[in-house]
Write a structure and sequence with these properties.
Largest sheet: 6 strands, parallel
CATH topology of the largest domain: Rossmann fold
Structural class: alpha/beta
CATH architecture of the largest domain: 3-Layer(aba) Sandwich
Oligomer: single chain
Number of domains: 2
CATH class of the largest domain: Alpha Beta
CATH superfamily of the largest domain: NAD(P)-binding Rossmann-like Domain
Length: 438
């Protein structure tokens, strides 16, 4: 079986490599020649645990190939996945120009039946637009070629995407006909050996499922952060509250950790997009509007704690930042809370020394430039620092040597943005401790 994946970003590359891993012939297509050339040489555009090994292994075996030529790549394929970007517009809506551009090119070049699958996160009615775009291109050619459109949203967690794809908890597929369903069942059969996890539905429901899932998870995060902020004011401990409510199976323990807010390529964009979809159909999603507002405010909470400790004039003070990416095990800085926090500290006159295990190159090249100092390791970041801010909970930050840090730092102040550390223990060592909701 041969398939084509258009787009070699996070979703496209992981999907293509994992399909190749189970023996499917995969061509990954991208218009970026430098990116394709890099992939052919084993240079990946993203960091994701386990992905590099799978890409290199399957490229070496010939099951996975990379191309800039969509016309050649779709010949002989049964399925084409559209996995290009859908960046948010000014109003929060998903920009579909890349998705529909690919659809048009497919219609201009296809020579036999295809299942065209939207893998990108797209709003409801996108499949209709894709279908109309392909049909229009075929009509212009005077070609009477049948095709199907399907929706197959991804549910990959950055930092665990390879595992999620190879061992999915569910595979949601929206189809419009039995032929497309049969082909998609055959495509995903290798991932179903331990039980059928495929959920077939109509296409609009599949498109909505992706947004609803991310919106629900974002809601849990903002809810817990709201509760954490109240806990501080009434003298409660948000970490204890989390354990108390998380033991209820109706609530669950995931995504209810207080912190500095969510970021990344999915939650912020998808919450905005579904709010915009509601407006387009005359419905106001008030809960999700509040989710977004709480999250934006939460990114400022740790800065307010810094101001409470040091005042609004931070000139002459140096702050160590542990963690730049929006979550561990990724170099993704899109909507990362660390960027907002660093920007505010710099505006207040502070100097910043940052360290992240994998995201510093991305930070320097695309986001922060030379506005901060990039440390060689976690301890180097703390040399002569007036305070340490933990922003991203990378594993190597969990059990630092506080004795070493107390000797390196100018002032022993810790702002724990993920509630990783034991307040009592740090205070016994002479540190001033600030957590979230405690």
């Amino acid at each position: 079986m041969k398939i084509t994946v258009v787009g070699t970003g996070y979703v496209g590359l992981v999907s293509g490599a994992c399909f190749a891993e189970v023996g499917i012939q995969v061509v990954c297509v991208d218009v970026n020649e430098a990116k394709i050339e890099g992939l052919r040489n084993g240079i990946l555009p993203i960091y994701e645990p386990g992905l590099e090994e799978i890409v290199k292994r399957n490229y070496g075996s010939g099951r996975l190939s990379f191309s800039t030529n969509l016309n050649e790549s779709i010949q002989g394929a049964e399925v084409v996945f559209i996995a290009v970007g859908t960046p948010p517009g000014e109003d929060g809506s998903a920009d579909l120009k890349y998705v529909l551009g690919v659809a048009k090119e497919i219609g201009e070049n296809m020579s036999d039946y295809l299942v065209v699958v939207t893998k990108s996160t797209v709003p409801v009615t996108t499949a209709e637009k894709v279908h109309a775009t392909i049909q229009s291109a075929l009509k212009t050619r005077g070609a009477a070629i049948t095709f199907s459109v399907a929706s197959n949203p991804e549910f990959l967690k950055e930092g665990a995407a390879v595992e999620d794809f190879l061992k999915p908890d569910r595979i949601v597929i929206g189809v419009e006909d039995e032929r497309a369903e049969s082909i998609m069942r055959r495509l995903y059969k290798p991932f179903q050996l331990n039980g059928d996890r495929m959920i077939f539905m109509d296409i609009p429901s599949a498109e909505m499922t992706k947004y609803a899932a991310n919106a629900m998870l974002a809601t849990k995060i903002s809810f817990m952060n709201d509760i954490a902020n109240l806990c501080e004011r009434v003298g409660a401990n948000a970490s204890m509250v989390r354990k108390g409510i998380g033991s209820d199976p109706r609530i669950g323990s995931k995504f209810i950790y207080p912190g500095v807010g969510y970021g990344g390529s999915c939650f912020p964009k998808d919450v905005k997009a579904i709010i915009n979809t509601g407006k387009q159909f005359g419905y106001e999603l008030k809960v999700l509007q509040a989710v977004e507002e709480v999250n934006e405010n939460q990114k400022q909470v740790i800065v307010q704690k810094v101001i409470s400790q040091f005042g609004k004039d931070l000139k002459g003070l140096t702050f160590a930042i542990w963690g730049l990416s929006f979550k561990p095990n990724t170099d993704d800085l899109r909507e990362a809370p660390a960027l907002v926090i660093i920007e505010q500290l710099l505006k207040l006159g502070a100097k910043v020394r940052g360290y992240d295990p994998v995201a510093m190159k991305e930070a320097e090249h695309l986001y922060l430039g030379n506005s901060i100092t990039y440390a060689t390791d976690a301890y180097d970041a703390c040399v002569d620092a007036d305070a340490l801010l933990l922003i991203t909970e990378w594993s190597e930050f969990r059990v630092p040597s506080w004795e070493a840090l107390s000797k390196l730092m100018k002032q022993k102040v810790v702002f724990d943005g993920r509630n990783l550390y034991d307040r009592k223990y740090l205070e016994e060592l002479g540190f001033v401790y600030h957590g979230i909701g405690v």
